[in-house]
Write the structure tokens for this entry.
Amino acid sequence: MEPLTLRYTVDGDSFTTAGEASTDMKRSLKRIGADADLIRRASICMYEGEINMVIHGGGGQASVTFDGQKMEIVLTDRGKGIPDIEAAMREGFSTATQEVRDLGFGAGMGLPNMKRYADEMVVESKVGAGTTVRMVLYDDPQRNA
Amino acid sequence: MTGCDALKLKNIMEILEADSLTGHDLLDAEVHSACGSDLMSDVLAFVKEQGMLLTGLCNPQVVRTAEMMDMRCVVFVRGKTPGADIVDLASDGGIAVLTTPFRMYEACGRLYAAGLSQED
């Protein structure tokens, strides 16, 4: 399987285009023949992260690398940061506006979902400076066995 | 997934008295399970099997969510008709789009009664 390196700039001003990077990543993974379960887990992680970057981070940069066994997704924004990461990781905790909730997101499931589907996840954030989410996923056929 | 029967999209159209907006070539495709939600993060968190999404939301993220979950079809309830941008996005992703006049409760009930299970 050919290795994959992808870079995206996520537009923080458009909820309409949010998810374009995730769609492209998913199609790229399909093209190289990555495992279907890995593709789905990675797609959810990337998509939730991309949505978070748009609704909280004002956009940012996303990178994806995959060597056939290990995938790393790094999402970096220059938004307002997360004051309490532990709280943000709890299901249901949200600081999203009603407008975002009306669009079907912002229910406090984004980061918990990403943690659920990634094999490893680290969130680093500084208030006023931004947030970096680093996720690692492995092609492990036994995961859902 | 529990004890479900597969339904073809064309059968689902009849059950829901739905119109097809795109994906006409997919109407012979089978769906094994369905999920009704207006909360996309719930769909992303709990849906496991390929299936279809019924929703009252009408924005592009509905289609993006369905594509992330390998769903074959999105059904807009309460007679909502998505804009061309949403329909085009679904078409590009190989996802059929239906619109039914029924509200979420009745649409889901009709499919459940026809043997289509929920996601497990």
